[in-house]
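Appendix B, Record 12. Input sequence as logged:
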Amino acid sequence: MTRDAMPWPAHGGQAAPLLARYALPADHPLLDFSANLNPLGPPAWVPARLAATSPGLARYPAPDYRSAREAIAREAGVTVEQVLLTNGGAEAIFLVAAAHAGGRALIAQPTFTEYARACRAFGLTIEDYPLAPADFSLDPERLGASLAPGTLLWLCRPNNPTATLVSRDAVERLLTLAAASDCRVVVDEAFIDFVTPPEESLAPLLGRFDNLILLRSLTKLYALPGLRVGYLLASESLVHQFHVRQPPWSVNHLAAELVAPLVDDSVFLARTRQWLAEEQPRLQAGLVATGLEVIPSRTNFFLVRPGAESEKTAGQSQLDMMGEPGTGRREGRAATETLFERLLRSGILARHTHGFPGLDGGWLRLALRDRSDNDRLLAALAEGESS
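Logged structural output:
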């Protein structure tokens, strides 16, 4: 199979097909900048806790996951009946789509591709709402005007892969506009714990807006993607609608038993925020200094592309957003793929953006890692600039 015929992986953290794409050996050493995980984690106490709870593997988990939900409710300031524990954020996404099967969805793009995948799985009619092409910002009034009655609106906050953040005020305005049209708003906050500076929680808005659905993940902050644990916050009636569609015991015993100690670990959260405060602005400045175009980030990853992109290409993004790529866009994508390959051969795995509407391979996403790894990334970029 030729390189062009090989499919691009749908998610980050998938080195094997990319190494094969570029005819590199399977053991080619790589630093993974494609998965947005906390480089500090998992917390040091996790292995001992898993060992201590392993005898419970001989029993079914408690079907209501009461202790885990109580811990989340305390942290979020909601009732336990407003919490649904899920098998990672992905299950929460699919449960929301299942509860709105056959309806209409509006997705602010570019964003996480699983929203569209879940909506397609349950027969929702999907319409894409393009974010502003220059900075991927969102105008709540303009978006609100696009809401037909009964629409399910999907937002990602901070947005993956653009690393931009819709303000709490903008979300509140959208909720008001959506309520007037009998629309529900899903806000996926899988990366909210990485926002710099820390952002005020949307959870208090659940007391005022019964059309708000919040999705959260514990796997990103605590670097535990293999455990698959997340949760959903909404009104009690909505949580019930999602729960009746959830398979029994969808969250395993080990994951459920980790929830309470994870959300109570304020020391680990403080360490994470210290790392973010030091490394996030440093790497952002370093990326800009290498000549890359960098979308200002509010979280633990960056959307970048080669700085040689012409103004014409950038201005053409809106016209090309949902149609066939234009000439400038194809040229920009080629430059980005050249950069991707160069980094891969230098031992850096970036996240491609093929499959994201409006990006279509023209950008790369780079995760924030520890200082040593970030310096290696900057060195690899600088080496390419000088060669």
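The chain has a mean pLDDT of 91.
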